[in-house]
Amino acid sequence: MTATSVTKCLSRAETDMHVARTITGARATAFSLVTSLGALVIAATAIADVITGSVNLSMQWTWLVISVALGVTVAPFILGERFPPAIALYGCWLFGGVTSLQVSLGGDTIMTVNNLVLYPMVSCYLGWFFRPRLARASVGGLFVMSGTALLVSDHHEVFATWSNLALASLFCLEAALYLRAKLERQAQSDPLTGAFNRTGLSDQLARKLPRNQRTARTLTLAVIDLDGFKAINDRLGHHAGDQTLVRLVEDLRRSLRPQDTIARIGGDEFVILLPDTSTPAATTIMRRLQTESEAAWTFGLATARRTDTEDSLLRRADQRLYAQKKGLSQAPQD
């Protein structure tokens, strides 16, 4: 796998919240700080092996591992958000390769087990900071390498321990993946309607807009604003207003395609992304949705251009919505 392809697959790590500043003034992220700490743990265990005389390979190999681990400890702490996630991934693969060599070539059973005990930690790290497919493939690779090394070694008696560590690592991996996915859903969802919020919409546009511009496919964005929503709140109360918003999203979901996206970006303002849909086709869809919805609402459309950004696309759709709200008969079209 090339560095470019790895970087494309990675990185939930690149989106982590900034939490501190490094000694160089660079912004440190949760990813860079945890990477430093994890590498320090690996370095510390290797140093402990040297001190106690528990080296399972040659001293040259052991000091190589210590040097690499200390380098990975220092680099994220200095670079902060500029630290490449691919380096951390390669470090995990290198750790798996070295420990597998230790299992196959080492002569001490206890030291063989000691080489594997950090696998659950590495699995948790991969599950939290990397994409699910890449994390699962990497953890699977660790155990394919170490399992193969165990089969060709003289340490078959530790197979039960290896199996237990594999199960523990699988649990840590899947727990981290589940919790991270749940956190991302909560961070990108509107708690009232279950639609995407502004953050979720930005994430969707960041994925779909470049892809559609690159492939010359169409992407149309619709902005929806409820008619008379303030009057509903004033006359019937905010609970009735909330239920109106919930029912609107339910109505839209029943009628839209699976590939379409609904987001709530304001009090009574929503956005619908319609991939592979031209402006005339989107107009037909939106008018049909209006007839199927309990609530009355107005919409404005904008179809993405090659030079569009998220802001420019939303701005054009919002301008057309405003024109419709003002009752203008002529609104600029794409």
UniProtKB/TrEMBL annotation:
Source organism, top-level taxon: Bacteria
Keywords: Membrane, Transmembrane, Transmembrane helix
UniProt cross-references to CDD domains, sorted A to Z: GGDEF
Keyword NAD: no
Domain GGDEF: 217-334
Entry annotated with the keyword Transmembrane: yes
Segments crossing the lipid bilayer: 28-48, 60-79, 86-105, 111-130, 137-153, 159-179
Pfam family of the protein (one): GGDEF
Name of this protein: Diguanylate cyclase
